[in-house]
Design a protein that fits this description.
84 residues; mainly alpha; 4 helices; elongated
């Protein structure tokens, strides 16, 4: 099931990314998914679904946005390894 949501934006907002409305909305979906993934709200799978891209494309977007694909902090990883 798909739900359509209308968002009102000023006409000049599209020039911010030098794009047309369709590309702007796609980039907005991707940016939101990246941020929500970064703060641990959603998984990579859910983020790629929200962004409307494949998981591989989402991983490329994480790289482009300088966001780690790993949700575990170095400290958490060290603690987990110390337990084993």
């Amino acid at each position: 099931m798909t739900i359509n949501i209308n968002v009102e934006l000023p006409n000049d907002v599209f020039s911010a990314l030098r794009s047309n409305p369709e590309n702007f909305v796609q980039e907005m979906r991707l940016a939101a998914a990246v941020k929500w993934y970064e703060v641990g709200m959603i998984s990579q799978s859910k983020a790629s679904e929200i962004a409307g891209v494949s998981r591989h494309q989402f991983l490329e977007a994480l790289h482009r946005y300088h966001v780690s694909p790993f949700q575990v902090t170095p400290e958490e990883l060290a603690e987990e390894l110390a337990r084993e």
